[in-house]
Q: What sequence folds into this?
């Protein structure tokens, strides 16, 4: 008989799950109180693990936000001695909001088994060959895929940041059966197959895709599935907590099971910050239940979704979350990299010849996603001198490449250009990327 | 009492070590005979594990070369079932010689403990904070550092491919105590500290550097050590076999201990392919003694060194290898990336406007290593049209960036330019990088 679940916890009764959650909630609060940040928060609000008698008691604790993590960077939320953590993760850019995320050895093992469990739920098995197409480095995604894939016993190809042509060449050579990629890379994948006159379902062994990082809605997902003739499984995670490994679509593909033995889930009104009735759309708030190095209590993810309460046909008792409809933060994804507008802004500030205003355009040219930045020059004389102009655009684009590893196209516009235009585009990211169809 | 060695095998008697080697040599040949490649080689030469009664009997086996790996890419040297391997590594470029390197779960554990042993030999301990500055992805180095660092229990910062400014910012923020970087990045490190008006030994917690990848000679190493006032430990490894983790300098810093329980070492004359007397300089040939997924027999590394037979003052009984004086292959390193001239060549071939000849220059401008490629245009009229020229250089540089992730400077020269010059520079890599002094 085929084993249906990676871990027997996946179909434990909701009652058992709730008992485990309560136990681990208390444990988590206890552990968190060892960190500088939570010790001070708990003291200020007169809170401790002792006040938790039911899951509802958690609501007496304040939310933790991204800016709490940034302003206590790097070690303020660390709940164990520095010597006990073996891995640091963060956002990659020098000017991105600073985040220090720490893992103990046990956290890494737990992460590996969560990702293995997630992958297994999509139908991956140890004979699969998994090509990891996300960039390695400070961000967690690729490392998590590698850990989890190996735990599951698949052959992992840590392809990382290579061109789409090379990705396709590799998947053909090695016979990759599963690809893990950011949803934002799907369009380039489709286009490159088209350019090569190849059909992935015929010309490769790929039989499923797992997408993470940027949100993708159901309609867009189905459109790409129909084009590729390959199913796409959505996964969910955030840098701050084991991404990937938090939630994933099972073979039923009707929402993402969020692993409730590891994550306590709340949905709140993102304006009023009050709990929302079950099933309503709101901001996802997570309390980690099993992190040692850096437990988080009521962490505001910035992601909007809803809980699906109905039991899933797969038999897993862990509830599902619906499509992530938008992120409340500014992070955007291009060419498989996660970028913050602040990285662009602060890089531009170091170039005296340009003004304060800019617009970031995400565009598709020749099937490739392109980052274009419109920047005002301080001195309009620049615009008449081709040599100077050329030199300045090169200077800016190489500084931004240095910071983001994405080579942008720079468009210089005259001083006060933006004041003539609609203010609402200023310092914003305008996503004009072609939806693949 | 302080534990002096990570593993008790490090100071076992030479007799014990040789017995273990003989046992593992037979085992390795036995395992290798399960691969398509070795099965056919052994059949052709009537060889088997049974003929090995002493280490000298290994000389009856033919050498394995890089081209054997390439021409049997990807699975030809795999000695276990595909389902048993969990990790694939390779060179990153689409046009680099193809190499498929495979690891079982046990190979990864063994690799982790070899790197931990290596790091420990340099004086690293679990309280250290290790910043990994090599690029992650298909190549092994960063993954090996991560595995080994975690095994040793240090805090690993998987920094990867970020700018040197960001590296320095990170090491300050986190208090990194050890940096792992390619020797080729040392000059940029020194320059960037200088530019920032910082002294690493005063303004950071860094207390040692470990360098790998490209060779560095003793004099250059000492010069940089004196500038930084921080000791540098050399390590040695090759993509094909657990790099890093093969050999490292202990705290005595008089040559790199090569772990003889995992690697059987020969030094041969690279022209005549005959064994050289002990202590003479020649090509390093390695037989793996403990690899499961892809054992290699008499593998020609292409690296020139010599064995140091004298016992080391550290008490380790594993012999040392001397400075790697040159690599016989063409691989070069720039901006922390490993590149093959073939990647450049084959990318240029896809641009109809340029000729067959080119020269690759590695230069230092403004303290940064720069890749410059001189290319002939087919039609000299190009050189008179600034717009066309601009467009063509952009096209070439973006294609090369796409392939190598290094943004080159392209210099177009007239048709037949190279025939007027010394032929010996053609299709070669000219390294004009400033040695830091």
A:
């Amino acid at each position: 008989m085929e084993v249906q679940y990676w871990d027997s916890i996946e179909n434990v009764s909701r009652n058992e799950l709730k008992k485990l959650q309560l136990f681990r909630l208390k444990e988590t609060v206890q552990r968190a109180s060892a960190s500088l940040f939570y010790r001070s928060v708990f003291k200020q609000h007169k809170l401790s693990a002792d006040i938790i008698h039911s899951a509802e008691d958690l609501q007496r604790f304040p939310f933790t936000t991204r800016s709490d993590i940034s302003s206590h960077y790097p070690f303020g939320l660390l709940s164990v001695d520095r010597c006990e953590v073996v891995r640091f993760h963060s956002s990659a850019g020098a000017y991105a909001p600073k985040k220090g995320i720490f893992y103990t050895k046990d956290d890494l093992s737990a992460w590996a088994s969560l990702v293995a469990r997630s992958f297994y739920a999509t139908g991956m098995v140890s004979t699969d060959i998994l090509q990891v197409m996300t960039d390695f480095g400070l961000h967690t995604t690729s490392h998590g895929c590698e850990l989890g894939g190996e735990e599951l016993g698949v052959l992992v190809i840590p392809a990382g940041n290579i061109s789409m042509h090379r990705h396709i060449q590799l998947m053909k050579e090695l016979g990759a059966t599963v690809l893990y990629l950011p949803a934002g890379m799907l369009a380039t994948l489709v286009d490159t197959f088209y350019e090569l006159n190849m059909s992935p379902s015929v010309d490769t062994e790929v039989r499923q895709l797992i997408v993470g990082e940027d949100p993708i809605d159901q309609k867009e997902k189905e459109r790409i599935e129909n084009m590729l003739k390959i199913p796409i499984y959505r996964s969910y995670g955030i840098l701050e907590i084991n991404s990937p490994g938090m939630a994933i679509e099972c073979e039923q593909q009707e929402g993402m099971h969020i692993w409730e033995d590891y994550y306590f889930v709340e949905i709140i009104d993102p304006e009023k910050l009050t709990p929302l009735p079950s099933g309503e759309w709101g901001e996802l708030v997570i309390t980690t239940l099993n992190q040692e190095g850096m437990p988080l209590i009521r962490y505001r993810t910035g992601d909007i979704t809803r809980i699906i309460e109905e039991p899933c046909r797969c038999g897993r008792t862990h509830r599902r979350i619906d499509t992530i409809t938008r992120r409340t933060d500014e992070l955007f994804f291009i060419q498989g990299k996660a970028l913050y507008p602040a990285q662009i802004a602060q890089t531009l500030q170091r170039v005296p010849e340009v003004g304060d205003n800019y617009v970031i355009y995400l565009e598709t040219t020749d099937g490739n996603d392109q980052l274009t930045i419109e920047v005002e020059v301080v001195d309009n004389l620049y615009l008449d001198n081709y040599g100077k102009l050329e030199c300045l655009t090169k200077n800016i684009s190489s500084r931004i490449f240095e910071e983001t590893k994405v080579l942008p196209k720079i468009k210089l516009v005259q001083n006060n250009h933006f004041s003539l235009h609609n203010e609402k585009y200023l310092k914003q990211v305008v996503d004009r990327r072609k939806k693949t169809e």
